[in-house]
Amino acid sequence: MGEHTSQLSLSFAFEAQGPYEPSEIVVPAIDGEPLAAIIGGRFPGLSRLTRRAPQPALAGQVDLGEDGRVVVLDGGCSIAECCGVMARMTFEADTVRWHDFTARGRPPIPHGLDFTFDRSQYEAAIAGLAS
Q: Rounded to whole angstroms, how far apart are CA atoms 24 and 11?
């Protein structure tokens, strides 16, 4: 899956994850397909010590990644810097774009990933993380 020219829909699900902390993760999905399935072979979501933990980062308010990128999938050890996936987020008046992906660890991620979302739908999905 490469660049998309039409706007996509972002959603989140909460998923129980094993006996260790954090026990629940936030699973991002693009047009209903989990991001980890699109990327392939990665930890399925973001650690959720509290529901609000990923909210400011995904809204572009803080840099929780590296080199201006934001963590979109944690590593299996819950440490994104070890084996997580990060993307640049560009916020325009009507859109939010995830692009210029990078990842630590294996497996490698596909080249050219680029997702553009309707900004109002994106912001509603992010706001839903706090409820």
A: 16
